[in-house]
């Protein structure tokens, strides 16, 4: 018997459906106009066009493609061999082409997308391109599929901006069915506690760069996704909650028989669905309830704050309007079921080993906190996603998730959560609206009233820390870091010094219109402040010395300044000339000039995207 859906969840979802109705209907009409029922996609092309599309293929493949009943799969890949998470994709096209042929289909690499690594660019100029790389990836995906040669698509991506970009691009061609194909995490390295300890010792000047580099290389040490639960692994979770992965496909290591088997199965499954007419167009398959399920997963697992932008942007690409109020209200009813670094000491491999996502999905589904009336690449409903795959005599078989968690310090049942809510809060007041992830913040650190110290760049914060000027209770305000100002870089380098000050007994918090990271942790941080300072947001009115009330329990974020004085304040002119050129930043001036707010997804596609 199906558990009735939680009444609050039902009400929020219905509100989203009603709010989204006009844009969703417009989107569906657009993609339905592109569908070619009963014909392969390339049948609409002229002979010269087709000849160009066939030219590079081997003769045997050309013969198959000339048949009007042969499906052709497009592959969009984020492969490069610098980013550890994407290096394993090198082998995937050959596996997929081979598997497609075995099932009466063909496959072509339709295009590639960039895949930059925030871990490499963190704190440097390249990070100012990071957020907008998502939109470049979306456009690259659409360009690859624009040849109209394909009856379905497979999308290879893992990390921070790559998966959201692939999804936005895929939904722009949402008349095609598709499956997202992950590469898996690297094996576990040194423990997270040891890694964090070395970082802090380095920040305090107690160990040198050689010791820090040795520690980091023992943590990030092989092909695969970084093993902490940041934006990349939150991506993988959301793709399963959306039902566009094979069940439990996310967290098997690269270069293993299981990874190859799952990749081949994805190709075969898509081909068979196209051939028998069961493969749903991606844009129709993913509806309002699908995106609410992804949001639920984000809360139940304590996922990355970056997805308060990316999930909004992905949904808008399908004509669905999510708001931060939805995030806040859903968070209040979803229990936190996992603790993985930075919310705990375990990594993603430990999480998968003790029960993983199939356990989480079953617990939510059985307690009325997950929409089961959704379409997925496996068919109707989320039951398939409560199972995990095994290789039995070389063949994939899915079995039910474990009945009990193998370690309740990492994964807990619905009846015994780590906290009764998802740990994401909407922060609001005269400073603006922002979000905070409190799942890793200790309870006694969640409410702070202290004077502000205002900075215009994270380097200014680091320099003040080095000079010993921050040995006090204070609210660290870093402004002019929004999408319009400088591309909204992550400010993750602030975590170690602010954490040190917190450990020394000072009450500290961060307020910024920039981003932190999927790895944001114990320091309370109200981020993504909207409107940003450059667009007149209240964060730009704060002056050093203003008392700030920072209450992440109630969600209040207020500058305790006389209202008349506050309203009369001007926002100072930003010094952004140093952010406009170098490392390609000049090429993104157009993106900075038109991007929407963080709350509406920080999208550069304009208001009529849906």
From TrEMBL:
Kindly state what the record says about how the cofactor is bound.
Answer: Binds 1 [4Fe-4S] cluster.
Which residues are in the Dihydroxy-acid/6-phosphogluconate dehydratase N-terminal domain?
71-383
Cofactor(s) this protein requires = [4Fe-4S] cluster
* First-tier enzyme category under EC: lyase
- Pathway where this protein functions: Carbohydrate metabolism; Entner-Doudoroff pathway
> Start and end of every Dihydroxy-acid/6-phosphogluconate dehydratase C-terminal domain?
409-602
Q: What is its EC number?
A: 4.2.1.12
Q: Where does [4Fe-4S] cluster bind?
A: 159, 226
Key words of the record: 4Fe-4S, Carbohydrate metabolism, Gluconate utilization, Iron, Iron-sulfur, Lyase, Metal-binding
Extract the InterPro entries matched here: 6-phosphgluc_deHydtase, Dihydro-acid_dehy_C, DiOHA_6PGluconate_deHydtase_CS, ILV_EDD_C, ILV_EDD_N, IlvD/EDD_N
Identify the domain of life.
Bacteria
Task: Write down the chemical reaction(s) this protein catalyses.
Answer: 6-phospho-D-gluconate = 2-dehydro-3-deoxy-6-phospho-D-gluconate + H2O
Protein family per UniProt:
Belongs to the IlvD/Edd family.
The record's section on PANTHER family has: D-XYLONATE DEHYDRATASE, PHOSPHOGLUCONATE DEHYDRATASE
The entry's function note states: Catalyzes the dehydration of 6-phospho-D-gluconate to 2-dehydro-3-deoxy-6-phospho-D-gluconate.
Name listed for the protein in its UniProt record: Phosphogluconate dehydratase
